Amino acid sequence: MIPSAARARLGFAFAVSVTSLACGQHAVQPMLLPPVLVDSLALLQKIEAPGFVVSGVAATDDCKVWLAGASWGLIVEADPTSGESRIIGQLPGHLADTRLELADDHRLLAWSQESRVLMRIDTRNNRIREVAPPKHPCVGSAVGPSVPLGDGSIAVAPLGDQRIVRTPRPWQDAPIVWLLAGGDNHSVTIGNMSDKGGEFLTVADAQVRIGSAGDTLQILFLVDGVLERTMPWGGNSRLSTIHAGEQRKTDTVYLPRYFQAPDTWEDVWHAGWLINGLQPRVYQVAQFADAAFGPDGAFFAIRNGEAKWNAADTPLGKRMYHEPGGWEITRQWIEQYAADGRPLGWFALPSAGAQRLVVDGVGRLFIWGDDGSVGIFRDPSRSGQCGRPGPDMLIPFVDAPDAAPILGGADASASSSPD
Amino acid sequence: MAGACTLLVVVSPSCPICARMRVTWPARFAAWVDSVGGDVRPLWLSEGGRDALVAFIEGFRLDGIQFAYLARGRTIHGYNVLGVLGTPTLYLVDPGGLVQSGLVGDAFPPINLSRAVCGS
User: Fold this and answer.
1) Residue B32: pLDDT above 90?
2) A277-295 burial string, b = 16+ CB within 10 Å, else e?
3) Which of A255, A400, A403, B6 could form an SS bridge with B93, CB 3.0 to 4.6 Å?
4) What span, in angstroms and rounded, lies between the C-alpha atoms of A82 and A392?
């Protein structure tokens, strides 16, 4: 089936294309003692969805929940009180891994890093409106963690959740966050990814989660556990960069660290017969695995508390890389912070391997288990009717390519404005 | 195969990107072929044996694609021979049987290169 000449060429390339890189330390140094976890989060209900992998969650003030399907962008509304659910429709473009954010009382923001799409959904009529994504100087149009701001603009960190992005050479300074203003196609950039060398280190060290509280934009750097707070449109309205600029007032909060990790390093193996044949491994121990902001700026984070080097590897990994194995996070818990970075609480992780969470702002935390299931927990900082136990939500729908009519219909139009 | 290029796409029934390609790939392939302007025949090569391949493609509109499979238990050997590190991996094979370019992921080979190799 494969021509012999091609086989010979591929086989030869496989034998000779190993290139070198990288070295690193294999231990993290303890700093603070881990907290004694006496509190646990109260489970309210589970989402049971055998044909529907949930990737995005947003809640409205009446406690109802909108869910986005990870595979094909099916949108479902679920009622936590009755446990019933109904299909809203399907997002256009076969979106994958769609995330949802609440913009105001009737609008949601949907974004997909994988499909590079950003759009608003009006929940009153289920109309959608696409927003042109930021143009990143490294990778072109890109979408990452996004948050609607109170003035109608949208903050987007296009590479904030991508660890493996090759650094172009020569390096061109790249912002971290884009503010897409409402109405006038204006955008402003914040922050600066400084060159960390290597092929993949620059973006790997700039993983962020973003949130907002009033006029303040919050940026949490996961790797080193630093929270930056700034007022992008307010104050003197002079715009600058967070790290390099002096014009915009920025608060920097260094969150507690429980270990000192080696610098991020990489091992890049090159498959010479492939155009995009770099096969990188990036070795990194971040202070946080994930974080999620509520509408008042308070946030919860999954803390990485301990890590060890696990030298186990696949036969292919042992053959390709100089240092087989990788970091294994051996202890995690959940931390709660106020908007200004003050620690408020520590909680045991509900299930081992949880890597994602969402705060809905009306009394609930959504926490993803390592099997993709989602548990709904009570937000301990809020009281209200949404934080009550209920029956498990059964989502009987299948997130398939043609599961429902496409949202937006003929009236949906692409727009360069986020408004 | 004489006179035509082959776009060999190595897929796996367990690969999420490959699963999405069953829906999104045919239209993207058609657009890419239009840009290339030549005769390019797509061939999907799957791991996991015949039954797994049949189950993988059943019910999807994949007209015009030829399918082949690696026998069960021979995947690693096949991947070593082909230089496949993961799925999907794609090779553009010219009419003479030589691999002209390879890519990891579901992207297509560069238009200019493909036009030079396969364009009419």
Assistant:
1) yes
2) bbbbbbbbbbbbbbbbbbb
3) B6
4) 9
Kindly give the pairing relationship between strand A85-90 and strand A74-78: antiparallel
CATH number at residue A398: 2.120.10.30
Å from B56 to nearest chain A CA?
14
For residue A32, being part of any structural domain is answered with yes
B contact residues 35-74, partner A, Cβ 8 Å cutoff? 43, 45, 68
Do A6 and B101 make contact, defined as CB atoms within 8 angstroms?
Answer: no
* B20, B21, B61, best to mutate vs chain A, most A CBs in 10 Å: B20
Q: In this structure, which CATH number among 3.40.30.10, 1.10.260.40, 3.90.25.10, 3.40.5.50 belongs to the domain B5-118?
A: 3.40.30.10
Residue in the block written with tokens 């049971």: A48
Q: How confident is the model at residue A368 (pLDDT cuts 50, 70, 90)?
A: very high
pLDDT at site A184 = 56
Of the partner residues B8, B19, B102, the one whose CB lies closest to the CB of residue A274: B102
Q: What's the confidence (pLDDT) of residue A234?
A: 52
Q: Is the dihedral of CA A42, A48, A52, A53 positive or negative?
A: positive
Is A271 in Cβ contact with B103 (below 8 Å)?
no
| Both tokens assigned to A37 | 């976890």
pLDDT level of residue A204 (50, 70, 90 thresholds): very high
Structure tokens at B39: 């005769």
DSSP H stretches of helix in chain B: 16-36, 49-57, 75-82, 111-118
CB atoms within 10 A of CB A303: 27
pLDDT, averaged across chain A: 84
Does the interface predicted TM-score (ipTM) exceed 0.95? Answer: no
* Domain hosting residue A383, numbered range: 25-415
- The pLDDT value recorded for residue A409 is 53
Cα separation of A401 and A364, whole Å? Answer: 30
* Integer Cα distance of A227 and A250 in angstroms: 10
CB A336 within 8 A of CB A343: yes
- Structural domain count of chain A: 1
Confidence of residue A24 (pLDDT cuts 50, 70, 90): low
Domain locations in chain B as residue ranges: 5-118
